[in-house]
Each structure stands twice: as structure tokens, then as C-alpha cells.
Amino acid sequence: MSEKSNHSNETEPEDPRETRTVRRLRAQLDEAQDIHQLTANPLLAAVRADRFRVSVTRSMWCFLTCGLGFTATGVQAFLAGHLGPSDPMWWGAWLVEPAFAGILITLLRWEAQMLAHGLAVDDRPVKWLKRVLLGATLITNVWSSLRPPDGQINAGMVFLHLVIPLVVFLLAEVMPVIQARCNAARDKAAEIVPAPTSTPPSAVTQAAPARTALRLPGHLQGALDAKANEVHAEGRALTAQDIQEALNVPEEYAARLAAQLAA
């Protein structure tokens, strides 16, 4: 009998007028408020901005690699000329563009790392090195397409060997800009919102109702909020006796509510 009584005291009081739909909607509303509070955190916005930067950078690296792979054929044709696979120079010509591309990619990675730390890279030697590498790729590709080994000029190949090196050159110039803008967006999103000015206890109580982990029906929560406002106006903490007077609940349940509100 005593165990059943204790169990009934610990049972949360429910409003018989509340339907299951109302309780489900109230739970969904509480979840929506928690999600909104988390998504509004500036640190989460900074993480999202940084993830977007990583995604865009990976895509740019992928397309840059594809473009350099295409230009490697033009460089090899320019250097090898009428040579055949039996000549070592024919095989060695395939290593020139990968070497140029390796230098360019290493330079771009270093530039991206400097920008990630807020250091601008505007030194003239860096710019000239990128332009020489990409300019050599452009010249060799256009020349090989205008002077093919079989002597027949293909307008489509001339167009591709002209446009793709230009696109690769512009990609190399745009990637640092993308890094800088994404880092600026991340830093702006991570700015700390200034703390609000202090307000009187009564105002705080009015703005933030007394909430506990134990879910209360609407009319009981309203009565608890009203009692909390009254007690804080008197300059003291809410006690279990105050909760019993407001809600007419068992003493043990009132003590649990008071402990949670105090925490």
C-alpha cells in the first residue's frame, strides 16, 4: 500500500482536459525552440561556413587537376613532336607538365594556408611564378594544336587548347580569392554577440518562466510562473511549500520541482 502511495506521489499530475494531440504538439514546440536556439549559435554558423569553404575548395582542386591533365597532352605533343614511343624523349615529355602542375599546386596550397591564418599573399615573385607556369602551359598547348604532327589543324582542338589553359590560369587566380572570402565569412559568423545588460530579478522572471525537466500541463505551468514572480518580487527563492500552495501537489513532488528550479 505504501509503495503504491509513493508511486502515486512521484507520478506527474496531468490535466484531464488535455488530449494526446495537445501533449504531442507541446513536445514538438519545445523541440523546435531547442533547435532554433542551437541553430542561432554563432559558433555553429562559423562551422558551417568553414565546411562550405572546404567543399568549394575541393571542387576547385578537382577541376584544376582535370584541366592540368588535359594540358599535359598538349605539352607532350609540343615537346615530342614527330618522335615515337621508342625515343626516351617521347616519354620524358610526359613529365614536364606534371612537374609544372606539381609546383603550381604546391604554391597554391601554401597560399591557401597563409590565407587561412589571415596572412595576405601579394608578393610579386609569387604572382610571377604562377604566371610563368601557366603561360608556358598556354603557349605549348596552342602551338601544338596549330602544328599537329599530321599537319591537319582541328579548330575544335585549337579552341580547347586555348580555352582550357586560360581556365586553369583563372582558377589559380580565383582560388586565393575564394579562400580569403570564405575565411572572412567564417570570422564574421564567429563574432561573439555582446552580453545583454543586467536587468532586475523581477524583469528576468517575467521574461523567462520557471521551467523544469518535469513537463507540466498548461494551467499548472501558468500557476507556477505566477507564484515564481510573486516570490522573486519578495526577494527570496521559490520553496517546496510555495509550490504546494500554488499547485496543490504532494510534498515530495513539490520538493523535486523546487530542487530543479534551484539548479
UniProtKB/TrEMBL annotation:
Keywords: Membrane, Transmembrane, Transmembrane helix
Transmembrane portions of the chain: 61-83, 89-108, 128-146, 158-178
Region (Disordered): 1-20
Annotated protein name in UniProt: DUF2637 domain-containing protein
Species assigned in the record: Lentzea miocenica
